[in-house]
Amino acid sequence: MASVTSLSDVVQQHLASALSATLPEAAGADPLLRRSDRADFQANGILALAKKAKANPRELATQVVSQVVTGEVIKDVEVSGPGFLNITIADRAITGNLAARYADETGRLGVPTAAHPGTTVIDYAQPNVAKEMHVGHLRSAVIGDSVVQLLEFTGEQVVRRHHIGDWGTQFGMLIQYLDEHPHELDHKASAEDTAASGEEAMSNLDRLYKAARKKFDSDDEFKTRARRRVVDLQAGDPQTLAMWQKFVDESKIYFFSVFEKLDMEIQDPDIVGESGYNDMLAET
User: pLDDT value at position 191?
Assistant: First the structure.
């Protein structure tokens, strides 16, 4: 089945024709159509065109309205404010468009695939290791996942990326505390129970982080050992890296439990840490 033209595109075409008929030099100009709470759509492009043509925007808008073909698609157009156009769509145009989409046997609802699909990188979520995700992370995760699904539906190849905060001086404090308290990240919940395992992982990380911070702030000797750990981490000390990896793995258990609740498809290769740039720092 052929693709179904969206109502906004049809209205855009009607307005573009009316603009060209009213102001020939405006042929090809964008009417700047958008959704409106005052009508189905509002067009604001006449204001800029009037300024360029040194014309009264409201008078120009009135002339454009007289050129708009109403009936099949557009029920009514009225001039509002300094020269906005408020457009109301005919009920039969809406029902007809919906019926045409419903009749699409391919299941695509009349939405075509891109003629020349490309590759797009979507970077979203970006949580921090050993810390609970906040509403900002959840918001970007949901928006990013929505954009991914929309692009993939059109045939675009999408590269999903979650750049997690897994590097920094705070890891010296965390690693040193774990070295001195090796059972702090032990699990009791079954790994098969993603939700319970994720909650336990976050609970362990949160408890360890608070304990490590308290000791770091109150114990100068521990603070010195923690700062040495930062140097060891950045230098690639195997033992230090192994403990750092425990924090990353534990955090991923929590991350994946949250993504699962949001019904998001996230694969481990999609997650890229700041640590990946450590070897490049010497080049800068």
Answer: 65
CATH of the domain at 59: 3.30.1360.70
133 Cβ contact partners less than 8 Å away, ≥ 6 residues apart? 125, 127, 254, 255, 258
Of 51, 71, 94, the one marking the end of a domain is 94
Alpha-carbon span 249 to 237, nearest angstrom = 18
Q: What is the pLDDT of residues 240-284, one digit of tens each?
A: 999 999 999 999 999 999 999 999 988 999 999 999 887 777 765
Q: Is residue 181 a part of any domain in this protein?
A: yes
Question: Rg of the Cα trace of the chain?
Answer: 29
Number of domains in the chain: 2
What is the phi/psi pair of residue 122, to 5°? -115, 115
Assess if residue 182 is contained within a domain. Answer: yes
Determine if the pTM surpasses 0.90: no
- Assign residue 202 a region: left if phi > 0, alpha if psi is -120 to 50, beta otherwise? alpha
Specify the 3-state DSSP secondary structure of 75: strand
Residues 174 and 250 in one domain: yes
